[in-house]
Amino acid sequence: MTAQVDTERPVVIASGDQLKAKRLPTWAPVAVAAAAIVLAAGLVMGTGWGGPVLTGVVAAVLFIVGLGVAGGVVEGRRAGSNRVATTLIYSAFLLALAPLLSVAFVLVTKGFERLDGNFLGTSMKNISAFDANGGAYHAIIGTLEQAGIATLITVPLGIAGAIYIVEYGRGFLANAIRFFVDVMTGIPSIVAGLFILSFWVFVVTPIFNDGRPGYSGFAAALALSVLMLPTVVRSTEEMLRLVPGALREGAYALGIPKWKTIMKIVLPTAGPGIVTGCMLAVARAAGETAPVLLVAGGNPAINFSPFSDNQSSLSLYVFEQAGVASQYAPARAWAAALTLVVIVLTLTVLAKLLARRNKLAR
Amino acid sequence: MATTTGVPSPPAAGPGEGGSLPRKRPLGAEMLFRGTTTAAGTMVLVIIVAIAVFLIWQAVPALTDNDANFLTEENWYANDNPPRFGIAATAFGTVLTAVIALLLAVPVALGIALCLSHYAPKRVATPLGFIIDLLAAVPSVVFGLWGRDYFFEPVQGLSRFLHENLGWLPIFGSEGPYGKSVLLGSIVLAIMILPIVTSLSREVFMQTPAQNEEAALALGATKWEMIRTAVLPFGRPGIIASVMLGLGRALGETIALALTLGGVYKVSFDLIGPGGTSIAANIATRFGEANEVGRSALIASGLVLFAITLVVNMIARAIVYRRREFVGGSA
C-alpha cells in the first residue's frame, strides 16, 4: 500500500539540514558580545560620558538587544525572545552575585582583623574610645542565653500548637489559628520588641521591682519567642502532616489512646524535621537586633544573669560599635559580626544537613 | 472478611459480646493533653490580640499629649514639652523604601530562582541554592554595616550619574552631597530580601509537575515559553506569598535602615539626596534618648507599623488561600 502512494507522489527526500530549524551558529553570541563591548567602549569612553562601569552596563544592554535581534532575524521571533529571556535570567544571577559576594568578602577579611582569643574572652568594661582592645565575651553570653531561653519557651509551645492544628483542630478556631500563624510570621521584629517592652518591661516587671521597669535578657528572650513561635508552629505543622495516616490508624487499631499515639508514634516519626525547623527559627532569632535593643538595653560589662539588669547581645554589640566614634570600633564591629554569622550559619548548616537525612521529606 | 483465621480475638470480651469502648473521663490523660495543645494553639491568637492591646495602652499617653496631628505631622519632637510628633514622614519612608526594594529585588530574585531551578546544571544549582538559603539567614545588622561602610561608595557614584543624566526627574533632582539616602537604604534592603524571595520561589518552581513542562515542550514551546505557560502559572500563589513575605521583611526592617538612611523627617520623593527615614529605624535610633512621653510616642508609631504589616500580611494570605483552591499548588 505504501509503495503505491510513494509512486503516485513525487518523493521529496528531506535532508538533515532542511528538517532542522535555522539556528544561529555557536560563535554568534561571542561575536555579538565582542561587538557590544567595542561599541559600548566607543560610545562611553570615546565621548567621555563615563567610566568602565558604565561601559559594562551599556555593553550588557547592547548584547541583550543585539542577540535578541540576531536571533529573531535568523531563527524567528519566538526563538529570539527565548534567547533574550535566557540571557536576562543568567544576568540576573550574575547581577545578584556581585553584592552578595562583596558582603561575604568584607565580612571575612574585616572580621579576622580582630577575631582572636582576646576578643572572644574580654568584655567592653572600661574600654574608652582610645582603647584598641576590648571584646565581645559579654555579648556572646547574651546571645547564647537569650536564644537558649527563647528556644526553651518556644519549642514546647510551638510543637503543642502544631499538634492542636494537625491532630485536634477542627472548625473555626483551628482555621483562625492557622491563618493568624501565617499572619504572625510577618510581624516585624521591632514590633515584637515594643510588645514585650509595653507588656513585660513596663507592666509586669514593676510589680516585682519596686515600680521600676526591669530591662533584662529574659525580656529579650520573650521578644525572640514571639518571633520564633510562628516559624516553629509552621514547620512542625508541615512535618506532622507528612506522617502517614496509616501509622496513626495502626496505633488506634491496637487500642492506644490518641495522645499516646501522638507522643510515641507521630512526634518521633516527624522528629528530625521538627528539629530542623526549630534550628532554623533559632538561627533567625539569634541574629535579631531590634528587640534586644529595646528590652535588654545593652551592657558593656559581663552579666551572666538573664533575669536582672541589662544584657547585651552580639547583634546589638555590632550595632553599638557601628555608632561609636572611635578608630578601633569598626574592627570590633566586624569581628563581632563574623562571630555572629559563624554561630547563625553553623546552626543553619546543621539544620540543613539534618533535613537531608530526613526520610519523611523525601 | 472471609479470612478471619489467625486474627487474635480481644481477650476481655466473650464470644459475641465485643469489648466496651473505654469511658471518656473528663480529667483523663487524653482530655488533659487535648486541653494543653488547644491552649498552646490559642496562644497565637492571644499574642496577636495582646500586641494590639498593650501597644494601644502604652501609646495613649503620648497621643493625648501630642500637640500636633499624629497622622499629618512630619517632624518628631516627642521629647519636647509639649511634644510634637507625627508619622507622616516615617510611615511614608517605610512604604517608599520597601516598595523600591521590592521593585529592585523581585525581578532579579525570580530570575535567580528560575536560573537555579530550570537553567543551571543540577551540579551547580544544588550548592548555589544551598548558599542562597544560607544568605537568607545572615543577620540584617551585617548587611546594614556593609551598606554603610562599603556600599555607599558605588551608590554615591550611581547617584552622581543619575543626577547628571536624569536630573530633570524630581526623584534624581538633589545636588548632593550624596551619602546616606533613600537609594542606598532601598538597595541594601533589596539585597537583603533577595535571598528570601529567591529561596521561597525556587522551591515553588521546582515543584512544577514534570508532565506540565514536558507537555509544553512536546507542543513545540521554546524553553522560555514553557516557563511562561507551565512554570509561572503553577507557581503564582507561591510567588505572591514569597513577594509578600519579602515586603513584610522590608516594611519591618530596622537596623539596616537605621544605619543607611539619612534620618531626615520629610515627605519627599527625592531618592539620592541626604534623607529618608522609616518607622522602625526611627524607633531604633530614637529609643535611647527618649523620655517617658518619647517612648510612648515611639510605641504609637510601632502600632502604626504593626497595623500596616498586619493588613499587608492578611491580604497576602487571603490571596494565597483563595488561589490555592483553584491551582492546587502548595504555598
UniProtKB/TrEMBL annotation, chain A:
<dbReference type="GO" id="GO:0005315">
    <property type="term" value="F:phosphate transmembrane transporter activity"/>
</dbReference>
<keyword id="KW-1003">Cell membrane</keyword>
<feature type="transmembrane region" description="Helical">
    <location>
        <begin position="86"/>
        <end position="108"/>
    </location>
</feature>
<protein>
    <recommendedName>
        <fullName>Phosphate transport system permease protein PstA</fullName>
    </recommendedName>
</protein>
<keyword id="KW-0592">Phosphate transport</keyword>
<feature type="transmembrane region" description="Helical">
    <location>
        <begin position="53"/>
        <end position="74"/>
    </location>
</feature>
<keyword id="KW-1133">Transmembrane helix</keyword>
<feature type="transmembrane region" description="Helical">
    <location>
        <begin position="215"/>
        <end position="233"/>
    </location>
</feature>
<dbReference type="GO" id="GO:0035435">
    <property type="term" value="P:phosphate ion transmembrane transport"/>
</dbReference>
<keyword id="KW-0472">Membrane</keyword>
<feature type="transmembrane region" description="Helical">
    <location>
        <begin position="179"/>
        <end position="203"/>
    </location>
</feature>
<feature type="domain" description="ABC transmembrane type-1">
    <location>
        <begin position="140"/>
        <end position="351"/>
    </location>
</feature>
<keyword id="KW-0812">Transmembrane</keyword>
<dbReference type="InterPro" id="IPR051408">
    <property type="entry name" value="Phosphate_transprt_permease"/>
</dbReference>
<feature type="transmembrane region" description="Helical">
    <location>
        <begin position="265"/>
        <end position="286"/>
    </location>
</feature>
<feature type="transmembrane region" description="Helical">
    <location>
        <begin position="27"/>
        <end position="47"/>
    </location>
</feature>
<dbReference type="InterPro" id="IPR035906">
    <property type="entry name" value="MetI-like_sf"/>
</dbReference>
<comment type="function">
    <text>Part of the binding-protein-dependent transport system for phosphate; probably responsible for the translocation of the substrate across the membrane.</text>
</comment>
<dbReference type="InterPro" id="IPR000515">
    <property type="entry name" value="MetI-like"/>
</dbReference>
<feature type="transmembrane region" description="Helical">
    <location>
        <begin position="333"/>
        <end position="355"/>
    </location>
</feature>
<feature type="transmembrane region" description="Helical">
    <location>
        <begin position="147"/>
        <end position="167"/>
    </location>
</feature>
<keyword id="KW-0813">Transport</keyword>
From TrEMBL, chain B:
<feature type="transmembrane region" description="Helical">
    <location>
        <begin position="85"/>
        <end position="116"/>
    </location>
</feature>
<comment type="similarity">
    <text>Belongs to the binding-protein-dependent transport system permease family. CysTW subfamily.</text>
</comment>
<keyword id="KW-0813">Transport</keyword>
<feature type="transmembrane region" description="Helical">
    <location>
        <begin position="178"/>
        <end position="197"/>
    </location>
</feature>
<dbReference type="InterPro" id="IPR035906">
    <property type="entry name" value="MetI-like_sf"/>
</dbReference>
<dbReference type="InterPro" id="IPR011864">
    <property type="entry name" value="Phosphate_PstC"/>
</dbReference>
<comment type="function">
    <text>Part of the binding-protein-dependent transport system for phosphate; probably responsible for the translocation of the substrate across the membrane.</text>
</comment>
<keyword id="KW-0592">Phosphate transport</keyword>
<keyword id="KW-1133">Transmembrane helix</keyword>
<feature type="transmembrane region" description="Helical">
    <location>
        <begin position="297"/>
        <end position="316"/>
    </location>
</feature>
<feature type="transmembrane region" description="Helical">
    <location>
        <begin position="238"/>
        <end position="261"/>
    </location>
</feature>
<protein>
    <recommendedName>
        <fullName>Phosphate transport system permease protein</fullName>
    </recommendedName>
</protein>
<feature type="transmembrane region" description="Helical">
    <location>
        <begin position="128"/>
        <end position="146"/>
    </location>
</feature>
<dbReference type="Pfam" id="PF00528">
    <property type="entry name" value="BPD_transp_1"/>
</dbReference>
<dbReference type="GO" id="GO:0006817">
    <property type="term" value="P:phosphate ion transport"/>
</dbReference>
<feature type="transmembrane region" description="Helical">
    <location>
        <begin position="32"/>
        <end position="57"/>
    </location>
</feature>
<dbReference type="InterPro" id="IPR000515">
    <property type="entry name" value="MetI-like"/>
</dbReference>
<keyword id="KW-0812">Transmembrane</keyword>
<dbReference type="GO" id="GO:0005315">
    <property type="term" value="F:phosphate transmembrane transporter activity"/>
</dbReference>
<feature type="region of interest" description="Disordered">
    <location>
        <begin position="1"/>
        <end position="22"/>
    </location>
</feature>
<dbReference type="GO" id="GO:0005886">
    <property type="term" value="C:plasma membrane"/>
</dbReference>
<keyword id="KW-0472">Membrane</keyword>
